[in-house]
Amino acid sequence: METIKADILAFGAHADDIEIGMGGTAAKYTAAGKTVVFCDLTKAELSSNGTVASRAEEAKRAASLLGVQERVTLDLPDRGLFLTEEAIRLAAEIIRRYRPKVIFAPYERDRHPDHGACSRIVQEAFFSAGIRKYKTNGEEEAHKASRLYFYMINGFHKPDFCVDTTECMDKKKQSLRAYQSQFEMGEKSVATPLTNGYIEAVEARDRMMGKEVGRTFAEGFLTAMPLLIEQDLIGES
């Protein structure tokens, strides 16, 4: 089967990271006919609740709810994510395989060390994937995505730009609720920050982002490079 080419390739350290930070944006672009691919760097094997198998099923359902065309899970170690050559090569190989127009990764400033590590790994892979002589395990040719953006998981940071996700907020919440093992207390669950109103907190953050840009809901993003505006400087009247 031929590998699809992605308009958007989003990386996360664990399944549910991408949904938390940019589930609405993913849903918005898949609804517009764009091809979106998710890549989780780990199997989240050290999560306090759930199992690797249950998390994989939840991730599959969440991606389907958002209209994501493919979801890939790498085998890097949970809580063992570091800026290593192996991690960079694996991420670069995914970039070359799906040849995205734009790439998303977690914002580096986050309370969970794996999220920051994922950000640094993807930043290096974004650059290395475009170098013709850089070797990965695959046979794909070098590929340089046009942009690298960063989404927020934990915390509230001043964004460089926002995406209006008002029409997609319900889809985002559905995708988060697909992770029952993470966001709901079961008989065998232990309390974590995720089981204590986390989805409600994410919704509140997206509502606050929306207010910043005159919309009901929005997701905020950061960029390492300035954005070039050519035709829409004035914006809608």
Automatic annotation (TrEMBL):
InterPro entries: Bacillithiol_biosynth_BshB1, GlcNAc_PI_deacetylase-related, LmbE-like_dom_sf. Its cofactor is Zn(2+). SUPFAM superfamilies: LmbE-like. One of its GO terms (biological process) is bacillithiol biosynthetic process. One of its GO terms (molecular function) is deacetylase activity. Pfam families: PIG-L (PF02585). It comes from the Bacteria. This is Bacillithiol biosynthesis deacetylase BshB1. It comes from Pseudobacillus wudalianchiensis.
